[in-house]
Amino acid sequence: MEFVSPEGPQRYAALVRVAARSVVGLDMDGTLSPIVDDPAEARIHAEAPDVLADLARTVAAVAVITGRPARQAVALGRFDAVGDALAADRRTLTIFGQYGAERWSSTDRRVRTPRPPHGLAAFLAQIPALLRESDATDAFVEEKGLGVALHTRRMPDSAAAIARLAGPVTALAERHQLTVEPGRNVLEVRAPGVDKGDAVRAFARESAAEGFLFAGDDLGDLAAYAAVAELREAGLATLLVCSTSTEQSALRELSDLCVPGPDGVIAFLRRLVADVRAAQLA
Ligand SMILES: O=P(O)(O)OC[C@H]1O[C@H](O[C@H]2O[C@H](CO)[C@@H](O)[C@H](O)[C@H]2O)[C@H](O)[C@@H](O)[C@@H]1O
């Protein structure tokens, strides 16, 4: 394992020691799901459902903390099947969707979701004009119920399109009391006041966690990283794992461990499960 913080090896060992009373939060796109051009074509890593089930039997609780709508994440991740596999062991998989605004659990299988933010409908109505004025009519618009993502990945010069869109999107979002969440070849617009950090704090509190591992890949995961750092200050065993890509490096310097994309995340989680089980037998 390539630890990138000096404390990484000790933090990993401490987390293994308290794993049975620790929780794991995992980002989805770019961490559990390989990045693809069309968001609707994303699929979870083929081994992820089995690994998540094994992990959930090993630690206190597992959550996927994603920008995706919770219902969509459940479908793309085949999380119903993971929940079925966990039911006999009385374990639960939790999904925090839309950056923590939504919640689903494999126990009750219902999505708890707030009302769409005031201002979203007006923002949506102005998107065609905004894209025309920003020379970005080929951007892919993903409506998410509580927000909207403007994707540039399939445009000829994605970075230039993001640069043209960033100012106008931010100005229009602010006019409608919405916030902008930048990501990999995407600008998302959603309600302010909740982020992945809130999901981390809620999950740790409700689980009375003694340890917290989080893995992510993108800017939206920075809030989760900050919340895990707070938990570390409060005395929890923590580990921050970056799923690396050539597209985004913001998490690297904040991480304890870097692994190569979803393949690396899955291999790491398998290793964690094996190390925890070995420690419990010792
Ligand atoms: O928090 P995450 O689980 O990482 O979700 C963030 C957003 O991911 C999706 O977009 C990203 O993945 C797409 C599929 O691989 C890719 O085409 C796109 O360029 C990426 O930005 C998703 O479409 C969004 O709804 C999520 O909020």
UniProtKB/TrEMBL annotation:
<dbReference type="InterPro" id="IPR003337">
    <property type="entry name" value="Trehalose_PPase"/>
</dbReference>
<comment type="function">
    <text>Removes the phosphate from trehalose 6-phosphate to produce free trehalose.</text>
</comment>
<keyword id="KW-0378">Hydrolase</keyword>
<protein>
    <recommendedName>
        <fullName>Trehalose 6-phosphate phosphatase</fullName>
        <ecNumber>3.1.3.12</ecNumber>
    </recommendedName>
</protein>
<keyword id="KW-0460">Magnesium</keyword>
<dbReference type="InterPro" id="IPR036412">
    <property type="entry name" value="HAD-like_sf"/>
</dbReference>
<dbReference type="InterPro" id="IPR023214">
    <property type="entry name" value="HAD_sf"/>
</dbReference>
<dbReference type="Pfam" id="PF02358">
    <property type="entry name" value="Trehalose_PPase"/>
</dbReference>
<keyword id="KW-0479">Metal-binding</keyword>
<comment type="pathway">
    <text>Glycan biosynthesis; trehalose biosynthesis.</text>
</comment>
<comment type="similarity">
    <text>Belongs to the trehalose phosphatase family.</text>
</comment>
<dbReference type="InterPro" id="IPR044651">
    <property type="entry name" value="OTSB-like"/>
</dbReference>
